[in-house]
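Hello,

I think I submitted the adenosine monophosphate job twice by accident. Can you confirm which output corresponds to this input? Input:
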Amino acid sequence: MSGKRVVITGVPGVGKTTVIDASMKRLVEENIPYKAVNFGTCMFETAKSEGFVEDRDQMRTLDKDIQKKLQKLAAQRIGTMEGNIIIDTHASVKTPAGYLPGLPEWVLTELHPNTIVLVETDEDQILLRRMGDESRKRDAEGSRSIAEHQQMNRAFAAAYAMMTGCTVQIVRNENFLLDHAIDAMVAVLR
Ligand code: AMP
Ligand code: MG
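Support: Only one job matched these inputs. Its output is below.
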């Protein structure tokens, strides 16, 4: 397996996709080839064609066994991709049945990441970002619950590191400091 496989995670609304898109632009300028894959989009393509959902934000409320099946199919597809890859996904998904691991053993063995990045910021910033995002059906959650989710994601990431030997890195995406987040992300990817 050649290439670098970087898994990027963060709670909904932390700005993962924004940081990834901007970092991809910088990598192009530096002539470093990377492909960015959105794990949720891979799952959604199957979920939609099977008639399970119409919206990507409905997937996390599906029966957990269906979510796991979609997850496995997405991991198998992404697992066959070559070269340097960024995988935009979640360390854990908040479902009605509890925190669902985003990278259980059968996903990790397909993806074999070199490193897992946790994109984080303060919970009250995330709360405000979610309230301002009309494009998505973000969960209505209090800041304490968002803080818990970020804590759980660190615990999940540590478990994934134990299983694979991958490293774990934290990139802060603070209000008004997107450039810092991009610098930190590009340093991980370079
Ligand atoms: P996102 O656009 O990153 O918020 O992802 C959309 C949805 O895809 C999430 O709310 C989850 O339902 C699903 N998803 C993304 N990554 C994973 C994963 N690794 N395991 C399970 N579900 C995932
Ligand atoms: Mg996103």
